[in-house]
Structure formats: structure tokens, C-alpha cells
Amino acid sequence: MVDGWPISVQHRCILCILIDDNILGITQTDSEKAVVFTLSILYRFTKDPYGVFALILTSTREFTYQLSEHLQTLSSSLNMQYILIIGRMDMIGQARALQRPHIVVINFEKN
Fold it and tell me: Looking at domain 8-107, which of 3.30.565.10, 3.40.50.2000, 3.40.50.300, 3.90.1010.10 is its CATH number?
């Protein structure tokens, strides 16, 4: 958002989200994508909030953390749980967290 107004990809995709249409968007920054991506998932989550709802694959840690921030901010009132699966992090802790998430974000960046 710029000065409270959605930027172009957000503006073009929000109506598609509301009418349950599929979205394919190309943006210059990950942040632009992350907002639209997150809003789409959360909108559909509000309709049927049971079970694993979404699996998100990310190619960079930076984008993984950006998505996490958007999920946390935009889902704070939805009682939605998500987990980040990131290489070289605590595998046991991540495995335990996989018991009840609605959204699983997996980072597959090669390092």
C-alpha cells in the first residue's frame, strides 16, 4: 500500500479474490505479492477454517519471513495457526508445530 491506497497488483487482484477467481500476478517486489497472496488465503480461510488450508512454497528466507509478518498481522483476529518450515532450524520444534496448523510455509532455498 502506498499512502493508504493499494498498489497496482493489489488493486487489480482484490476483486478477483472477492469473487473467488484464480490469480496470477507479476510484481517487482516480494512485498507486493505477499499482501495479495496473504489476503487471498485469509479470505478463503474465513469461509472454511478447518484442517490444513494452504501449503506455501517459498524460494528465499526473506520472502518466507515477509509472508510470516503479513500472516501474523492480517490474521490476528481469525484464530488461524501457521508454521514456517525453514532449513537448518530446530527440526523437532518444527515437527511438533506441524500437528495443527492451518497454513504451512516451507522455504526450499538452497544453502
Answer: 3.40.50.300
